[in-house]
Design brief:
The chain has 331 residues and is of the alpha/beta class. The protein contains eleven helices and ten strands. It has two domains: 34 residues; 290 residues, Glycosidases (TIM Barrel, Alpha-Beta Barrel). Strand 8, helix 9 and strand 9 form a beta-alpha-beta unit. The structure holds magnesium ion.
């Protein structure tokens, strides 16, 4: 009898350990499990046409001498995957500000290190054209994305984000024509990978977009950005209108703090947003991987540039976001 109980316990332990093993394997190899992503109605679906969402981290502006370029390395990507169970990362190539790509092409080398690391680790990676005025540099955007599509367009990992945050540009007159031109150039090289488009008011006007969406191509989704201490129910209502009108959303950038990137963590508002994203299966990436002394940074100043962060190295925002990412897809 005793032996029987012992055996049953051992069998039970075996099954529990197998279950945990499978769970962590699934979300540590998102590319193997989910493969090519596409848009179906207002959802992102995987290679099996199942709705799917991912949680991860956005890197900070890549601009030279802005202080966050030191984190654009393979070790950080590997650490986020291993310790945070991040399944998607975003490189934010600074474009038209000081030290950006238009005047300093080393930005491109920098983001490629992270893109290559994400591919090696089996993660999704968003290539974000981090500009507030992208339609002023359409030619350069087209050249850049043609190069990215040529290098990476055959891989399931890659997602193109062609305009981070328009500010006061008009959706129908400025942003949409820009997006259609860039999308057409990408599609000649890469017929299928997801392309994400921003909207006016720092990528909050997804309701406006949903009344005049891009129909010239498939697998187009739209980014929604929020900062929890500044943006609340009103912005979720805009997001809901967009979803109801049938467009797919990805939150390629969000913060626990206010819209300036600073201030205290708003725990209550963050929790409400996460509940909304979970309910609607919307992927999200937290702003940002940086040690600058401001609320949005996930790590404190002067910690290791290569990951391996202890919980005391994390900021208040970093601790909360790590928990959110680790629990995503296990709820
Ligand atoms: Mg492709």
């Amino acid at each position: 009898m005793k032996n029987k109980i012992k055996k049953s316990i051992l069998v039970l332990i075996f099954f529990i350990s197998q279950h945990n093993f499978v769970t962590s394997q699934i979300y540590h190899n998102p590319i193997k499990t989910h493969g090519n992503l596409s848009v179906s109605g207002n959802k992102i679906v995987d290679q099996n046409k199942q709705p799917v969402s991912f949680a991860g981290n956005s890197f900070f502006w890549s601009n030279t001498n802005w202080g966050a370029e030191k984190f654009y390395n393979a070790e950080v990507v590997s650490w986020l995957k291993k310790d945070w169970e991040t399944t998607i990362v975003r490189v934010a190539i600074g474009v038209d500000e000081n030290g950006g790509y238009l005047t300093d092409t080393t930005n491109k080398d920098r983001i490629k290190v992270v893109i290559d690391a994400a591919i090696k680790e089996g993660l999704y990676v968003i290539i974000d054209w981090h500009s507030h005025h992208a339609e002023k540099h359409q030619k350069e955007a087209i050249e850049f994305f043609k190069e990215m599509a040529t290098l990476y367009g055959h891989l399931p990992n890659i997602i193109y984000e062609i305009y981070n945050e328009p500010i006061r540009s008009s959706w129908s007159n400025d942003i949409k024509p820009y997006a259609e031109a860039v999308i057409a150039a990408i599609r000649i090289i890469d017929p299928d990978n997801l392309i994400i488009v921003g909207s006016s008011t720092w990528s909050q006007d997804v309701d406006i977009v949903s009344k005049d969406p891009i129909t010239s191509n498939k697998n187009i989704a739209y980014t929604l950005h929020f900062y929890a201490a500044s943006h609340k129910e009103k912005l979720r209502e805009k997001a809901q209108i967009a979803l109801d009108n049938g467009i797919a959303l990805m939150v390629t950038e969000w913060g626990t703090i206010n819209a300036s990137g600073d201030g205290n963590v708003d725990h209550e508002s963050t929790d409400k947003w996460i509940e909304f994203l979970l309910k609607n299966k919307i992927s999200h990436l937290n702003w940002s991987v940086n040690d600058k002394n401001e609320g949005a940074s996930i790590i404190k100043p002067n910690v290791s540039e290569k990951g391996n962060w202890s919980d005391t190295d994390l900021t208040e925002s970093g601790k909360k976001v790590k928990t959110i990412i680790k629990h995503w897809n296990k709820q």
